[in-house]
Every structure is written in C-alpha cells, then in structure tokens.
Amino acid sequence: MNYALISENIKKQFKKSKRIVHALKGINLQIREGEIYGLLGPNGSGKSTFIRIASTLLIPDTGSIKIFGYDVVKEATKVQRLINRVSAEASFFKKLSAMENLLFAAGIHGISKKEALEKIYDISEKVGLDRKRLNDPLEDFSRGMQQKVAIARAFMTEPRLMLLDEPTTGLDPRAKREVQSLILQMRENMGATILLTTHDMEEAERLCDYVAIIHRGRIIIKGRTSELKTMIAHKVTNPTFEDVFMEFTGISFDEAEYEEAESA
Ligand SMILES: Nc1ncnc2c1ncn2[C@@H]1O[C@H](COP(=O)(O)OP(=O)(O)OP(=O)(O)O)[C@@H](O)[C@H]1O
Q1: Which among 140, 211, 148 has a CA at the least distance from the CA of 176?
Q2: Residues with Cβ within 6 A of ligand 1?
Q3: Residue 22 CB neighbour total at 10 angstroms
Q4: Which one of 27, 93, 126, 156 has the fewest CB atoms closer than 10 angstroms to its CB?
Q5: Which of 257, 258, 238, 239 shows the shortest CA–CA distance to 247?
Q6: For the chain, which residues make up each domain, given as ranges?
Q7: d(CA 126, CA 47)
Q8: So what family is this one in (predicted)?
Q9: Residue 28: what are its φ and ψ, rounded to 5°?
Q10: Residue 256: is its pLDDT beyond 70?
C-alpha cells in the first residue's frame, strides 16, 4: 500500500492572549494514494491547523508528517513541489485578469508560456469559462467561478497531493455542486490524492472515500462514510452523514480519562 501522507502524533499549541490553546493533541492518520480523504470537525477543532502543517506553512510542536515519504519540516522544499493548497477564500490578484493570474501561477511553477497557455485554455473549458472572459479582472467573476478557477489553477501544477481547505464554503448550492463535480473530475483526470476539509456533510459523503472526524484537536473516529453510518444505526433509524457528525462530535469526554485511554 502506498501512502500519500502519514501523520504521527502531531501536536500544536498556540498562545492566545494569556491562554494556551491546544489546537492539535496528537493526530495520527494515513492517507492512501489516490484517495479523497475528508477531515471533518466543528469550528475550532484543528482542521486548518493540520492542513497548514501538512502544507509546510506551520511547524508542529512535536510529531511528524511525511508526504510521499518526505518530512514536511526537514524536507519542506521537496514537499512543496508535490503539493498544492486551496482555501475557502481563493487568493488571486483580484484586479488582474484570469489570464494574468494563471500565467503568474504557471511562471512560479516553472511552466513555459506555451505550455501555460495550453493549460489555461484547458482550464477555462473544464470550469466552463468562456475564453472571452479570460481577460476580465477576477474581481468581476462570481465567487463560485473564482473558486473553480482557483482549484483548476492548483491542479494545473499537477500536484500529487492536493489540500482543499473548505473549498465550497460560502458558495450557493449550484456553485457548490459545480465545484464538487470539478474536484471529482480533477481527481479522475489527474489521479491526485486529495485531503479535504468541509462543514458540509452531504459534500463529505459525496466526495470522500474515507473520513476522520476531529474534535477538540483529537481524532474521534475514522472510517468510510458507510461504515460510520452503520456504527450509529442502532441509535438512529436511517442515519444521514450529518447524524454521524452530530453523534461523534457531541461526545463530552473527561480529558484525563481520555488521555489515559490514549496512552494505554
Ligand atoms: N495563529 C493562531 N493563533 C492563535 N490561535 C490559533 C491560531 N490558529 C488557530 N488557532 C486556534 O486553534 C484552534 C484550532 O483552529 P483551526 O483554525 O485549526 O480550527 P478549524 O477546525 O479549522 O476551524 P474552522 O472550522 O472554524 O475553520 C482554535 O481554537 C483557533 O482559535
């Protein structure tokens, strides 16, 4: 079995005014190559912190993440060549055109102008963007279209691992559907592995092969969406994936007891 990402005992704390926030309390997970892996959890549970560590933007306090065998701290440059990341707010030069933004991204990744133009026309087709609009400033595009361009732009660099941090947050249902279809289509075409965070449980079920639910910096449960539904079937009739989320994130546990169980 080839793994795209292996995380071992990742811990991270932050100082927030005078308080210490334990954002991640020992995250262990393995993502198989080619999989869409969902990291789900309530607000503040630590999802973005994990994604930021995996994408070399943040250094963990302890533990390690290996991406295709490379350590995200010690071999950050090698890791950066293998990954790309898209967050909820597409980061563009909004006054510049789609074409200028895409050419800029291609340039950073050492893609020649000729190849970049081919890829850009391909992207416009994939996201349903009329070629004539390529020269319009990105700020004139709908949020859904901006997000689709951001995802296609990230795939343009052919990452082996794509980190999608809430890629559909704030989009209307139609735009959301379109972005989800684009993610599936990109995975199909590029064969990339995807780590995705979302608050939308229907989306998690639609896109993810495997999910982990994180709560207060700890992974509470991992499994295929169907397996997790089966786990709560004795409590809820015909459970939805949202029921699964409610069940596992409603847990109130005694910290000391949990720590003991974890270290046992
Ligand atoms: N740079 C930072 N400084 C201080 N605290 C931080 C920082 N980044 C994250 N935190 C805290 O760490 C915890 C986890 O935050 P994180 O953003 O990883 O959660 P999340 O699961 O992604 O939340 P959301 O679903 O709301 O995006 C939160 O309590 C947050 O306030």
Answers
A1: 148
A2: 14, 16, 21, 23, 41, 43-49
A3: 16
A4: 93
A5: 239
A6: 3-253
A7: 29
A8: Belongs to the ABC transporter superfamily.
A9: -115, 120
A10: no
Distance in Å, CA 47 to ligand 1 centroid: 8
Q: To test the ligand 1 pocket, which listed residue (24, 45, 216) has its Cβ within 8 A of the most ligand atoms?
A: 45
Identify the pLDDT of residue 50.
97
Distance 200 CA to ligand 1 centre (A): 18
Residue entry with tokens 């309390």: 25
**Strand arrangement of the beta sheet that strand 3-16 belongs to:** 19-32, 3-16, 62-67, 70-71
Domain 3-253 has CATH 3.40.50.300: yes
What's the rounded Cα separation, in Å, for the pair 261 and 124? 51
Q: Which atom of ligand 1 is nearest to the CA of 41?
A: 21
Nearest CA residue ID for atom 31, ligand 1: 44
Average pLDDT over residues 192-196: 95
Å from CA of 188 to ligand 1 middle: 32
To test the pocket of ligand 1, the residue of 12, 13, 16 to mutate (highest count of ligand atoms within 8 Å of its CB) is 16
Considering the entire predicted model, what is its pTM? 0.89
Q: What is the pLDDT of residue 6?
A: 98
- Prediction ipTM score: 0.97
Q: Is the pLDDT of residue 263 over 50?
A: no
Tokens of 52: 């930021």
